[in-house]
Amino acid sequence: MKITRIVAISLTAALAFGCRYDAPEEEQDPGTIDPPAECTPGVDCEEVEVVANSVLILDDSTEEAGEMRFNLPSAQPSGELSVNIKVDSADEKLSYITLFGSSTSTSNAILDLKMGGKNSDYASDAGDDETVIKLRENNDSAGNKVEDQDTGLAYPGSEWVNVSLKWGAGEVIITLKNHASGEEIGSYTSPMQNVLDVEKITFKISDSGGVTTTDAPYYIDDIFVYDADGVITYEDSFNAEEFTKTYSTKASVVLTDAENANPVDEDDGGEEPGEPSEPSEVFENFDSYETGVEVSLANGSAWKTWNTGEDELGAYALAEITETQSFSGTKSLYLFDGSTKTKPSAALEFSAGEATEGSVSFYALLPAESEEEGTVKNAKSTYFNIGTSKDNSGRYFEIKVSGSGKIQYEAGDSDPEITTITAGEWVKYELSWTAENQVTVKINGVDFGPYEQIDTGLTGGTPTQFTVYTGDNSGNNNTAYIDDVDSELF
């Protein structure tokens, strides 16, 4: 086993060879890792075989935590971090992944993800060889400490896992996957602690008052940062003995070949060493369709639409692709009810037909009710349901969101209120149902329910599709934007 204490950390893409360069010794800031000068293979440096390294973060100091931080080339208002990590769940100290803006003060963090096992502060929540994830909460207005937010996420401490943090529109989606199998462990959506553009990312373990208690508490590998369009803006897979990236560090940060998420001596038919994990994908984000085309007519689309086009009074209802708004990428589905005679609907069927259990998630931006030139806009609701058809008789479970942001579920004469959102912002929704006919509604990562389907009075049978519509048959001027529709059922 070879362990080299870092003087610099770098990305080398998945190449067969790299360079070793013996730079002249210079006095450096002990808290900074700087890259070496460049060299030409075969001229002023020798070719060496690429090694599969990772970064081990330790805390061997009672004065500071173990930490590695890097700055993005440019601030990212939305994007995604993908990183492979391995945490020793037996360590007594917590490990962290933190997104920052320009300030690295904890109170200014965009998201501060904390991980700990059975011997840490999270002992009551963690099982044997298990690491649980929580989120730091800022102190309350009186300065009192607030308990960390539970995410319900946990993973084996003995395995490499991929962590994806996808941020934008005031929230961060946390997704965990087993790195070896690619199987999703779970996901959680959290509001940003501070709504800022991401500029710095930090990996840390322990604190300034103690030290880590195991030999290899926190490995990281394969860092990839994507912008809103899925373009890589920063990457580092540590597959060389020399380095090109600059990092700020505290305590002990070491480059090691003792562990690697993608060992070069294993040929399992999977990813090559250093190959990035793909950014998390959704079934439908509408970016592949031509702008201005009705979604059911777009090339390659599986969507169906009803009650669109011009009515007998010359008014329009639309269900088309737009670039005006989007949660991810550049496009979304635009629904507009400009008719007092009808309302536009769009539906996506499940590929295998009836689903006795399952879930559908999506993002929606529903403009707030407002007056414009004497006309009330978005005075009507937007509806999302699972069922067997677009008709009222085909609904299995339905939620509606008003222009004021009130969310209710359909239950006959009196529709119970679920919660209230801020209209005019992107919000994530998820509808989940079980074989026992219980439905849970998740709004921005918060569960509501479960609700008994039989209590709604809706007569739709086992769901076969997801449907969305906006407005009604009397009002007009209602607008909705839909993006990132996802389900294993499609």
Provide an overview of this structure.
There is one protein chain. The protein has strands at 3-5, 17-20, 32-33, 46-49, 54-58, 66-76, 79-87, 95-100, 111-116, 130-135, 149-156, 161-168, 171-178, 184-191, 198-205, 218-227, 232-236, 247-250, 252-256, 304-306, 309-310, 316-322, 332-337, 345-349, 358-365, 370-372, 375-377, 382-387, 395-401, 406-409, 417-420, 426-433, 438-443, 446-452, 465-470, 478-486. With 490 residues, it is mainly β. The protein folds into two domains: 3-256, Jelly Rolls, CATH 2.60.120; 295-486, Jelly Rolls. The radius of gyration is 25 Å and the shape is elongated. The model is unreliable at 1-50 and 264-280 (pLDDT under 50).
Estimate the strand proportion: 35-45%
The structure class reads mainly beta
**CATH architecture tag of the largest domain:** Sandwich
Distance N to C terminus: 47 Å
- Tell me how many strands there are: 36
By CATH reckoning, the class of the largest domain would read: Mainly Beta
Oligomer description: single chain
Mind summarizing the main beta sheet?
Answer: 9 strands, antiparallel
Report the radius of gyration as a whole number of Å: 25 Å
Q: Count the DSSP helices.
A: 0
Spans where pLDDT lies below 50 across 5 or more residues: 1-50, 264-280
Outline: elongated
**Domain module count:** 2
What is the CATH T-level topology of the largest domain? Answer: Jelly Rolls
Q: Return the average pLDDT rounded to an integer.
A: 82
Overall helicity: under 10%
Region (Disordered): 260-281
Biased composition (Acidic residues): 264-275
